[in-house]
Every structure is written in C-alpha cells, then in structure tokens.
Amino acid sequence: MGTCVDFVNSLDLDMSMKILMCLEDVSDLARICAVSCSWRHFVVENGLCKSFCVRLFPQLSRVGYVIENCCEKKLVEFECSSSRHVEREFLEKEHKVYMFLARGVTSFAIRKCISDAISASSTDNFPAESINNTLDSRDRIGRRASYWSSKGQKNPAVPERLTYKLVSNICVINEISIHPFEAYFQFGHPIYSAKSVRFRMGHSKIPIDDHMGDTHWDLVDDQLVWTYTSQEFPVAQENRLQTFVLPQPVLCIGGIFQIELLGRVQKQEMDGLFYICVSHVQVMGRSLSPAFDVEILKPSGEFALKVLSYTQPNPPEDSPVTTASSEYLLRRVRDLAQIVNMLQGDVGVHEDYEWEEEDVEADDEFPL
What we know:
The chain is an alpha+beta fold and 368 residues long. It is 26% helix and 30% strand. The protein has eight helices and 19 strands. Helix 5 (48-56) packs parallel to helix 6 (84-107).
C-alpha cells in the first residue's frame, strides 16, 4: 500500500482552500469534516461553510451578523483582545449556522412563494382589474373575466411593474411563471402580453401595506431596494402559463418580488391604445422560514441572519388536500369581492361572456 498524504496539512493554506472550494455540494463538505479532527478544524477555522454559501448566493456577503436560536445572542467578529477560546466558539457556531443554511437552500421543499400582491404601476379599472386577480390561476371567476390590466398607452415601449410580497423574508427563488390574458370577449381574442419580462428581488425601507393598488405606486417604488435583477426573458404572445427558469437559484432577502413587463405588443381596436394584461403569476422556490429570518440593518443595507430553529421544517402547506382547501377559500373571497365591486358600480369587464363564438358580432366587443 502506498504512502497516504494529508494534502490539507501538506499544502499551503491557499492551495488547500482552492481544492476544497471546488466541492459543489454541502454534503461533501460535511463528509470532509468527518474524515478527521484536523480536516474539520481546517474547515471550521477558515470559514469554508460561509464561503460555500456566499459562492452559491452572493447576497449573503451582506450579512452583518448572525442571531442564533432565538436567544438574541449575536455571533459577531471577535476582538483582537479576545481569548482563543472565544474565537473558537464563534467559528464553531458560525460553521453550524452556515452548514444548516447550505442544507436548507438545497433541501427545503419547493413550493409556491407568493404570499400577496402589493401594487401595480398602473391599473386600468381599479379594483375590478386589480393585481390581486393575478393570484388566482383562473382567467374567469364564474361568468367574469379575472385579470390585471395596465392603463392604455400610445407608446408601446412604456413598461409596467407588478410587485408582490413573498411567503417569508428569506426565500430561494428558482422559477417564475406568467400567464398573459386572452381577451376572449373581444373580436379575434387578442392576447395582451408583454414583449419581454425581467425580475427583481429585494426589500423595503419601510413596512408596506398589502393591496396598495396603483394610487400609492410612487411611494412604493421609492422605498424598494433591489439586490437582484435578472436578465430579460422573451414572452410569447400565447394564452398559456409561461415558465421562466432563472440561470441560478436566487436568494431573496427581504421578501419583495417584482415583475417588469417590458414592451407592449397588442393594441386594443376600440381606443387604439396598447395594453398589457396578466391572468396569473406564480413564483416557485424554497422558503427558509420558520428556520431562518432576516432583519435589515439601517442605514448600511446589511442584514442580520436569524437562526430560529435547527429543525428541518415540515413540508409546506402545498399538499393536494391543503392546497385545494386554501385555494377554494381564496377563490370564494375573490368571488365575493367581484360581487361587491359590481354592486358598488366598479364593474370593469363584467358582462356575460358565455355566448357561442358565432353569436358574437364585431360591434359587441367590450373594452378592457
């Protein structure tokens, strides 16, 4: 048997770090720690778990400090005068936090991540054509159309933005799906899609109320801080749920998600203006709550990473039975909201649309 060489102790620090940072899975790093006490000491001493997490998600480079396990004890960098024991204790706890985080971002269950709608940059008929309609997967509620519509524009280059609150303040987002709305009640069934989309994630400087509508958009937009902006994705002018997979999963710190709808492709014949209409929006990813939470630190823009539990969370409430029940209740609420809007005179598009196609004449169209 040949002589075995411990490269960690034989090579210089930089070379050993480069070798170990070639690992792509946190489970490999855990196995490295199990090889020997000296290898584990090397991983902990040099913060390899934290480096691994920052490599996966650059947003983690803005972590100011960690608060562990609801004890409100900050894991902060030790002072020069601190004892070696205090230094070692800090490194061990930091290793534990980032090891669990690395497992969470790759193993927590994938689920729907939108919690609520915050605001749209414009709305043609509020609240009948509100952004809240995009939370429902149906394009019809009873006999009524369900969609968000922008205001009409002469310039097709005018963009729109839809802003949502995610299910927790720290989520890993994998993909986004958007369903352009087909105006089945207009001649030719035009589809009011955007030309392309772009996605942004970040946090708010101030608490934001839900359902702010379009009247508070300037306030909302000024108070949002974006830590990630995606590339542009082309949108097909088709009546289907279109999925856009991010090149790499993105860690959203702060729980705010925005869709930028870029370019308009469909003009409404009745007024000659360009519109964008969306039937449904869906965001898929991993919520790291209730194991983790974040607190934005002002004015630096850094954040505190809170570890609330080292227990693997239960599967999300996206099981078929629970999801069906939750979606049914949400749909009933929105159905009632439609009825209230109609009684209050906010009718929007509330005609009966269940005629056969051959019975629909060109002059029976309805505007958005």
